[in-house]
Amino acid sequence: MKKGIKTCLVMIGIIAGLLVILVAGFLYKTEYKYTDIDTRTSSDGRCRLLLQMKGEPDWPFGSTYGRIIARYDDEIIKEFELEIRDDGAMLQKGNWDVAWGLAGVQITLQGSEQEDQVIQIMYDGSEEFSGYGEEEITSEIMRRYGDVKVCGKEGNLYCYDTGRFLFTVKNDLVLSDNYKMEQFRYLTDAYFAGRNRAHSYEETGKETGKETEKETEKTYTPVIPLYSASSEEKEWFCSDVTNWLLYVMKELPYEENEDLYQRIVIEYEGENFCYLFGNMKDFSEENVSVVYNDLYDFVENMVSESYAEKVTGKDDSGKGMNNSEAKGEMESGEAESEKTESEETESEETELTEETIQYYLTLEPDCTYETAGGVEYRMIPVDRACGSSFYVLVATADGGKSAVMTNSDPYLGSGGAAGWISFLQDEKTGFSCLAYSGGAYGALYRTEDGGKSFETVEYPSAKVKLPDGTYYNPFVMPEKVYEKDGKLCMEAGQGADGDYHGAEGFCNGLYESMDNGKTWVYVKEVPVS
Questions:
Q1: Residue pair 360/380 in contact by the 8 Å Cβ criterion
Q2: pTM over 0.90
Q3: What confidence tens digit (pLDDT) does each residue in 328-344 have?
Q4: Cβ neighbour number for residue 211 with a 10 Å cutoff
Q5: From CA 434, how far away is CA 356, in angstroms rounded?
Q6: Helix (H), strand (E) at residue 193
Q7: What is the C-alpha to C-alpha distance for residues 76 and 89, in angstroms, rounded to an integer?
Q8: What gap in Å lies between CA 110 and CA 124, rounded to an integer?
Q9: Dist CA 272 CA 255 (whole Å)
Q10: Residue 410, preceding bond cis, omega within 30 degrees?
Q11: How far apart are CA 458 and CA 326, in angstroms?
């Protein structure tokens, strides 16, 4: 009996001891144990930093604790506790950034729920950094970047000249500089100087105390214009941007300069659109499509949305505006007078003499269309410059004996070669194509008032892939618009230079419209018989 009780007490004691050990071990691991996370060593090997995590993060999404131990020549010169607010995540290498200076080291602690915390540790144990001499600064900058020379000083900022560009250095612990950002700008300027595309920059900086714009923290975001919504311009734009990236990355590789390749701003029709680069890690001369196609999609959507807003614009009352009104409302005080002047100008332009009308009727039209009511529209070339014709649109109901001027500038100032003109059954809605660039491309124009006014019509790319995997649109020449099975259809051909063959051979692109030809969607390829 006594022996059994004794055995039972021993077992209870053992279990209790094990529980105490387990609880103590759990508390030690979660509250007190230091775990090494990362180490950093200076280039000369004299200073070594150790980042440790203490226990585990507060549950469920609390702070993470740890410490940093700094050794110089194997002696501890600094040890301090830290707290990181990072949504309950474990401490990791990404929570700190280390920059080495001549006199000390600068540590930046980072967390998703906190502002960056900057800590400086002097190698000699002093509390504050007192600055470097000019010779000491120049020696270090030459070690970093080669042969440079100082060319100016303002406050604690020094200006240096590389022979290609200028950059600034701040007399702080780590000698902060903007060498790479200025090199990025120099290379960008050099590339676009040889291209027929302007560019500018969005400049950003930080405001801290009395320093209104920290020169060493300036960033330059390229602002690159997209000149039109045409297929060739979208392709040229995407090629220019990807070739620019390749050009700059030869001197500033992406792996070492990811912050330089974050975004560009695309300027289009007076608006700026921010494009964020993706897939840059896979981007190379052998694999440009990962960036090119993503940019192409962005530009295509950007243009489509901008165009859709223009053709479906609403005024303040919610009433639909026509295309010209959607471009921008007149200021209230000037609207009536401007409208009157516009109407008077238009009246003067259309009141032509009988002699001028008769002269136009002697000219051979490049294309015509006769309505069911017997009205013939003639697209007549009346001027020519640089290989392009400029047109007027006249209408005659008696076979050309007399005519009226319908539109003195149907193609809105553009020149080329009129390919065709046609109208729908309502005899008000019509379309015409103006070929340009030697017939390689064509623009689609639409009227809804019998030819009195026209607007350019944009349609999406078919996104066919070239051998290198990049997108392009082979269907660049609108050839006809027609009604079929209750739908409005358009076929676009490939122009004079087209050589794309689909599954069924040489083909056109078929498009359909649900809003009487204002906007179009790509449907499929159709073989050319």
A1: yes
A2: no
A3: 332 333 333 343 443 44
A4: 15
A5: 24
A6: helix 179-193
A7: 28
A8: 26
A9: 28
A10: no
A11: 15
